[in-house]
């Protein structure tokens, strides 16, 4: 789960990482109240989970109340790379002498946390890493030993940090690492870390990605999930416990197991179709999960045909057939279905389905045949 | 032979008294796996259809001579159970549990790498099946027979699909190894490649990968250097958009990294043939081994 800038800063504050003070606002009135409290100049910052806010006009320094109102009105509701701004963060203006970059990444390839530090802050770090990789000091941390003071010093010296800042930057990195571990993050990034004229170190921005699998023991963080920034179908699927990703095409896909569903999307694409979604019902899907999956898939208006591709392991094909019949009984879909059942109890599942003789439901005996049929149906051809 | 599980396997199941745990344990036993014990803290002294239950892995090892563990406990307790099994001297630990926090997996991985002889398969995997010998996990064994194709995969159901395509062409399997769909699998493709390379029964290796991470790219390098047996690849997730987790915690394209196209390219650059569909994987196997 990605956090908004101000949510990340609130986590930083919890771990004693210095951040400029600020107040979140959802309306212009709230923004004005916040600005009055903080004083001028203040910064009006769009809160969206995408980079490049500054360039898009989503971050403005307001010298007075008139400007604060003008900027708040302009930024609320603004579209930044497809993300609508629903929230602002009104922050005290910071004096900046230098901008650094710091990050801790869950590096799955190296199987260790990766700490990164650079004096080239405030820029696109991917660009820095391509053009001047030597400008970024990096170090992998032993996950069992933790981040050591000597490692922080080494990084700071390697990055070319001024002598008087070696210790403060080291402390900053140590706290960043503590945040990464304590909150079970996959990424903690600060760009820029600022150095103020009085040589203080502060986090001027935050980018935090939390591990969804760990949210059960971080209830405060779990509560930060904002349903309004999820697609309605994705939200519905989440409520039903289904793994669902909406895509741009018109063929609804249902399957059991992430790998098989990904493979199904690929095979449908190879046969000339365009998948409308990824939906993994998981192992051992019961009839109720099937009816809900049908509901989620068919609530996407773009869907013109649906493919059920099941290879039963824990999932039983008779359960899938029964679930499909229930789905048709409660809310008959208006689009054709192609169903392929193999694996545990497949003979029984196919028998149940044949006896029910559902309208607009076609069967296929292989994955390729199923893909071919559903692509034809989606194009309006008859079988 | 076969790899990881076989006739020498003496299985102890963590979470044996749970509904899923007991169901699959009994399935594994019915297949012929030597299930010697289970562990559920507080239920020591009970039994599940005659399989003795112990309070700790240490007791299970001492009393029942277990050498392999299957972990079926829910995510909050899984890392602890894996570490307990390793501490008790279990050599092969197969973790089925899905949804273990990534930081837990990282700590477990790092610790187990410091314990020579201990191997973790998974987590978030369907287990390991050596047809005709032993089944540890949730793979539907009836679809597979003994043979000369070793299969390793990040996905359960996709393994069944590919295994089934191979079976229809007349192939059986030495072992089918699910390495799991999480970001930090205990055993990598490279580890299993090494096992299959040294396994007499295995004549062809099928590697079924998916988007996310760089396990397939690393495997490609390893194959070029160290594997003499033919390898057929498959990569799922060409149609996956970047930044979205596709069901498995580890199946995510980050920026331009970890795409199906890049993985396929890396494999083909090292001379590994990659099937574009599961059916094509089986067709390539026929070309290599003969029908």
Automatic annotation (TrEMBL), chain A:
Listed name of the protein: Unannotated protein
Keywords assigned by UniProt, alphabetized: ATP-binding, Ligase, Magnesium, Metal-binding, Nucleotide-binding, Tricarboxylic acid cycle
Cofactor(s) recorded in Swiss-Prot or TrEMBL: Mg(2+)
Family matches, as SUPFAM superfamilies: Glutathione synthetase ATP-binding domain-like, Succinyl-CoA synthetase domains
Occurrences of domain ATP-grasp (ranges): 9-219
Pfam families: ATP-grasp_2, Ligase_CoA
NCBIfam families: PRK00696.1, sucCoAbeta
Automatic annotation (TrEMBL), chain B:
Alphabetical UniProt keywords: Ligase, Nucleotide-binding, Tricarboxylic acid cycle
GO cellular component: cytosol; succinate-CoA ligase complex (ADP-forming)
SMART domains: CoA_binding
Keyword S-adenosyl-L-methionine applies: no
Domain CoA-binding: 4-100
An MF annotation (GO) of this entry: succinate-CoA ligase (ADP-forming) activity
GO biological process, one term: tricarboxylic acid cycle
Classification via HAMAP family: Succ_CoA_alpha
Protein name: Unannotated protein
Lineage summary: unclassified sequences, metagenomes, ecological metagenomes
